[in-house]
Write a structure and sequence with these properties.
Blueprint lengths: L2 H10 L4 E6 L3 H9 L6 E7 L3 H10 L12 H7 L3 E3 L2 H6 L5 E4 L4 H13 L3 E4 L2 H18 L3 E3 L4 H14 L4 E8 L13 H5 L3 H6 L4 H8 L2 H14 L18 H4 L14 E6 L16 E6 L3 H9 L10 E6 L9 H10 L11 E7 L8 E3 L6 E7 H7 L8 E5 L14 E2 L5 H11 L2
C-alpha cells in the first residue's frame, strides 16, 4: 500500500500520525504549509524559543492561529488542535507524540532534542543535518537501541540523494558518483552574511519578504552546507569523499556523466564510488545553461555491453563512452517535502536516509586570519566555513567539526584557509553534543 493510501486509512480510522515540531523557522514553516493538506497527520505541538514568531509564521502559511491560543497539549491531542510552547521537553515526552521533527538548525541543541526524543520512544526526522554531520552514526545507534527510527529529512538534498543511490543499487547498478548541485566559485568560501545576497542571486528585498536568514543562506553559499550534506550522504550510503575537499566541477546536466567519471577515464573522481557537488558556474563566473544548481543526481555504470546497448536504445544520455549514465531531479522543495519522511518513519518504520558508518566529516576552516580572543560563529558566519574531509583525516588533524564551532573562543592563531583544531580553541566540553562526538572519535 502506498504511503498516501496508508495516510488516508489512518485518517478514516481516526488514528492520525501525531507530530511534534521543534523549530518553526523557514524549513518548519514550509512543512507547516503542507500539513493541512496532508491526510492522516495531526500536528499536536510546536516548540519554539519564540511562540509569538511561531504564530506569525503559522499565519503566514495560512493556519487558523486561533486554534493555537491557550491550547494545552492534552487538549490539542483530544481536539485536533495545536499547542505552542517554549518547553520542548514537555513536547517530546508527551505519550501521544509519534514523530518529532527537529527543525531548529542549531546542531548542539538538536543533539539534545534527538536524544531526549529517543529516550521517550519517539521517532525523529532530523532536519538539522549539521548535527548528523558530526555525530550521525551515534545518533542512529542510539535510536536503534531505543527501538525507534532516526532519519534524515526528505526534501533536503541528502535524503533525496540517498533515495537515488538506493534506486540505483536496487536496480543492480554500481554507483559511480552521487551528489547535488551548487552555485560555486572558489572565493565564495570567504563570503559573509553581508555579501551573501549579491552572490546568491537575491535582492535584500526578496530576502526580507521571505523572512530569509542571511547567516543560514550564507552557509549554503560558502560551501558549508554542501560539505555538511555530502558528509551525511557519504555516511548514509558508504560512498567515499575527496581526500582534500569538494572539487565542484562545473557542468550542465548533460555533462554530469562526463565529469563524474574517474580521472583515468577523463573525469574528476579519484576513484569510483564517491560523493561530489556540481557547480552551476563556469570558472570565469558564466552561468551554465540547464544547470543542476537546485537538484540532485546519481551516476551509474553499465557493466556489460548489453546494458550499455540498452542505454543507447532508449536514448539515455550518457558520457561519450556510452557506459556512464546520470539520473537526476533538477529541483528539490525543501520543507514542502518532509511529509515523505514523517510518513515513511511512522508507517513503514523506514528512514529516508540514516548513517550506516563514519566515512566523512566536515571541519571548520578559517575564513580569515583568526587570533586569540576571536569567537567562532559557526556555519555561514564571519569566521569559518565547512570543509569536507575523510573522517580518518579529520581525526588525524584534530579538526573541530563545523557543527561544534559555535560561540567558541580561539586561543591560538589560525591562518586563513587552515583547519581549526581542538588545540586552537577553548571548547565547552559539558554539552552532550561534544561528548557524543568524543565517543565517536574514540571508535575510529
Amino acid at each position: 500500500m502506498s504511503l498516501h493510501q496508508q495516510l488516508l486509512k489512518r485518517q478514516a480510522d481516526g488514528k492520525p500520525i501525531r507530530v511534534g515540531l521543534i523549530g518553526a523557522g523557514k524549513f518548519g514553516s514550509m512543512y507547516l504549509s503542507q500539513i493541512p493538506r496532508t491526510p492522516g497527520v495531526h500536528l499536536v505541538g510546536i516548540a519554539d524559543l519564540s511562540p509569538a514568531a511561531a504564530r506569525t509564521n503559522l499565519a503566514r502559511v495560512g493556519w487558523d492561529v486561533a486554534r493555537t491560543e491557550a491550547v494545552s497539549l492534552d487538549a490539542a491531542v483530544k481536539n485536533g488542535d495545536t499547542h505552542i510552547t517554549e518547553d520542548w521537553k514537555a513536547l517530546v515526552s508527551h505519550p501521544a507524540i509519534d514523530v518529532v521533527v527537529e527543525c531548529t538548525g542549531h546542531p548542539i541543541a538538536a543533539v539534545d532534542h534527538c536524544l531526549e526524543a529517543f529516550a521517550h520512544g519517539k521517532h525523529v526526522v532530523n532536519v538539522t543535518v549539521e548535527a548528523d554531520a558530526f555525530c550521525g552514526p551515534l545518533l542512529a545507534r542510539r535510536a536503534a537501541q531505543a527501538g525507534v527510527v532516526y532519519s534524515l529529512a526528505y526534501g533536503d538534498q541528502p535524503a533525496m540523494i540517498c533515495d537515488l543511490v538506493d534506486w540505483a543499487r536496487t536496480c543492480g547498478f554500481p554507483v559511480v558518483a552521487a551528489g547535488r548541485g551548487h552555485k560555486w566559485l572558489p572565493h565564495f568560501c570567504n563570503s559573509t552574511p553581508e555579501t551573501v545576497w549579491g552572490y546568491y542571486g537575491l535582492t535584500p528585498e526578496q530576502a526580507a519578504r521571505g523572512g530569509l536568514n542571511p547567516k543560514m543562506f550564507n552557509s549554503f553559499l560558502d560551501g558549508s552546507k554542501p560539505a555538511i550534506e555530502s558528509t551525511a550522504v557519504s555516511n548514509a550510503t558508504g560512498l567515499q569523499v575527496p581526500s582534500n575537499g569538494l572539487l565542484y566541477p562545473p557542468a550542465s546536466v548533460e555533462d554530469i556523466p562526463y565529469v563524474t567519471r574517474p580521472i583515468s577515464e577523463g573525469g574528476v573522481l579519484e576513484q569510483k564510488g564517491m560523493v561530489e557537488v556540481i557547480s552551476s558556474l563556469e570558472a570565469d563566473g558564466r552561468k551554465i545553461p540547464y544547470d543542476i544548481r537546485m537538484g540532485v543526481w546519481v551516476t551509474v555504470e553499465a557493466e556489460t555491453d548489453y546494458i550499455k546497448n540498452c542505454f543507447e536504445e532508449y536514448n539515455a544520455h550518457t558520457d561519450p563512452s556510452g557506459r556512464y549514465f546520470t539520473l537526476y531531479k533538477r529541483w528539490h522543495l525543501i520543507g514542502l517535502e518532509v511529509g515523505m519522511s514523517v510518513a515513511s518513519v511512522a508507517l513503514r518504520g523506514e528512514p529516508t536516509g540514516v548513517a550506516i558508518g563514519w566515512n566523512a566529516d566536515v571541519v571548520a576552516a578559517a575564513k580569515r586570519d583568526l587570533k586569540p580572543g576571536d569567537t567562532l560563529d559557526g556555519e555561514g558566519g564571519y569566521t569559518v566555513w565547512g570543509k569536507l574531509l575523510p573522517s580518518s583525516k579529520s581525526v588525524q588533524l584534530g579538526g573541530v567539526p563545523l557543527g561544534l564551532a559555535h560561540d567558541v573562543k580561539v586561543i591560538r592563531p589560525v591562518p586563513q584557509g587552515q583547519v581549526v583544531t581542538w588545540a586552537d580553541v577553548a571548547m565547552d566540553t559539558t554539552t552532550r553534543a561534544y561528548q557524543l562526538r568524543m565517543e565517536l572519535e574514540a571508535l575510529k
